[in-house]
Cytochrome aa3 subunit 2
Amino acid sequence: MTTDPHSRVDLCEAGRPFRVRPASVMAVALGGTVPAAPLPARAADTPMYYLETFGAKGDMTVPLLWALIAVSVLVVVVISAMVITGILRRRDPDLQAGGRIIAVSRPPGGIGWIHAGLVLTTLVLIGFTAWTVDLMARIAAPGREPSFMIEVTAQQFWWEARYVDPDDPARSFETANELHIPLGEPVRIRLRSTDVIHSFWVPALSGKTDAIPGQINETWIQGDRVGVYRGQCTEYCGQQHTNMAMRMFVDAPDDFTAWWDAQAADAEPASPGSLAVAGRQAFRLRCGACHTVRGTRSAGEVGPDLTHLMSRTTIASAMLPNTKGHLSGWIAAPQALKPGSHMPDTGISGPELHAIRTYLATLD
Ligand code: HEC
Ligand SMILES: [Cu+2]
């Protein structure tokens, strides 16, 4: 069994073709912000595209990026023009005038160009160094203190996310691979890794921060447009590095609060006597050692928390859409879909699979 490439979650999210909006690119390059044209929800959906950003942190970084691109292009153009001019204006000296060999000589005055070039390059480099250092200081901390924190633990090959309510520990909860943040609010991200070095990156919102075993790295993120943004592990971490993606939802404040409330709740108990109850028992035996469903006796810590699995749009680190078919395929043969992932093929029977899937469908 192989993965059908068309069944994967589209890189461009929501099937939206990759598109640069020149007006916003210019505005950003000139140090401004993206014009806040009223856009329908999800219009900010972008693929792994970082030249246009939708969050305070990314917005601060992008002018430097454009300036570096502009200077690099300018250098290539100027150098190419000089080389071409030199070739066209070349005069072949007559090296053997009257049978005598004449040494090649350089016309005087050329050294001035070299000095000018050196001075100019040095000034430009110093300028960019100063800009970079200043920018790094400005993006080190958000403009105001974040109201909550997400503890993200990178694992081969998925993202564990623990939302921490600073005032009410009972409202803290765990989820995986699909993160939600409220519109226009800075959120602190505390990064850990349990195995190898990974790196957290949601290009349209902010730069990269490594997740290093034995170390805690902190960063922050902010989304200023409602939408879904793709994130990706950006430090090679093993066989399924490519499929270690994530989806970051920037929600309107009310939607975010509703999402948090739903996530913090335990799973609804399955109705007695239903197939879902049989499924829950099979799940506890087959899957409960690795997966938690809050409110049940399954409390494994190896894989993603599945308490509200159905609230997620994708599974297996944004690799597959969360549909009935993909979910069945994943449970039956994770190693065929994502070879090397840490979920083993459990060899369950057809009826067991049916019961477990029916049970999982109740976890919304
Ligand atoms: C040995 C531990 C282990 C066992 C047993 C196990 N899983 Fe998993 N499971 C994982 C890991 C690890 C992942 C993350 C895989 C990845 O994305 O790379 C995962 C991912 C999943 C996901 C996707 C979750 C998401 O949001 O991405 C589902 C659904 C799932 N498992 C269901 C099951 C079911 C049902 C069973 C029992 C038949 C089961 N698992 C047994 C470890 C396990
Ligand atoms: Cu990784």
